[in-house]
Amino acid sequence: MTNGKPRVLATRHFPPDVEARLAANFDVQLNPEDRLYDGAALAKASAGFDAIMCAAGDALNAGTIAALPASIRMIATFSVGYEHVDVAAATKRNIVVSNTPDVLTDATADITLLCLLGAARRAHEGAAMLRTHNWVGWTPTQLMGTHVTGKRLGILGMGRIGQATADRARAFRMQIHYSNRSRLAPDLEKGAVFHANPDDMLPHCDFLSINAPMTPATAKWVNAERIAKLPKGAIVVNTARGGVVDDEALIAALKSGHLASAGLDVFDGEPRIHQGYYGLENAFLLPHMGSATVETRNAMGFKALDNLEAFLLRGQSPPDLVKVS
Ligand code: 8YV
Predict the structure, then answer these.
(1) Does pTM top 0.85 for this prediction?
(2) Is the dihedral of CA 295, 209, 154, 100 positive or negative?
(3) Which of 241, 248, 274, 295 is catalytic?
(4) How many angstroms separate the CA atoms of 180 and 187, rounded?
(5) How confident is the model at residue 4 (pLDDT cuts 50, 70, 90)?
(6) Residues in Cβ contact with 150 at an 8 Å cutoff, skipping those fewer than 6 apart
(7) 300, 303, 322, best to mutate for ligand 1 pocket (most atoms within 8 Å of CB)
(8) What is the average per-residue pLDDT within 198-210?
(9) Which of 120, 162, 184, 238 could form a disulfide with 210 if both were Cys (CB 3.0 to 4.6 A apart)?
């Protein structure tokens, strides 16, 4: 602690209003150039700090956490997903971890619908045709896609974002199927069909949306065997984490035509995504933009700050404490 203020290391360049509040309340080291730290550099840079404000993609794995200086008492991630933080390793070292749930639910559900519609209605091909001056004009058979209204949408992971996705899809009169660790209460389920075993849901999915977190149980869950259970012409949407999809299997199914298309906002190993996606016309691809609105990114930052302030300034447990699952 210097000048009476706890010291916070910000691993990324966060929105201006968020950095202003960070600087007002803490002795903060910002990262205006948004240089990416690897695990070793992050551990070294943390010397003398009380807390780290990080983001998805930062390597706060067991190795990095073991190498953190004893001064670090808190890791506040600017994200709802926390697969990049080894919470068990942090907890063992008495480092508390917080995340930013709720505030990015709507923005991420919006992007899910964008991916669903973009994939179904061949938005990438249409935009590319126009921008490369290859539009010959309207034709009766041009860029015919998949109808959305009235189709079945299967949602893997019916947490906040899954439910907000379902609410939006209901406006398209989609029939909602879902699989989740536990069945929702009727007022939240709103008539959606629950599948206790997610594999049983697959034959009912004209569209499959991945809204589940990345865990050992969901790693490469969308594999060749499960894709084969989807009806021919189905569409896969992923706005959760790229690691939930086996890229080779998805790319093969997009090439064979078993899947009509995919709408993806997240990728395994991003930003160095599987090269196979680049050549696929039937893949609608976005660069992890789920929460990218000014309002949402500010809200995420303020939530991370609420957590940092509770713990470091008031000695309270952070409101969004992440517990070992
Ligand atoms: C964030 C996200 O923008 O919060 C999450 O889990 O996936 C994103 O929308 C990103 O992870 C920032 O850390």
Answers:
(1) yes
(2) negative
(3) 241
(4) 16
(5) confident
(6) 172, 173, 174, 175
(7) 300
(8) 98
(9) 238
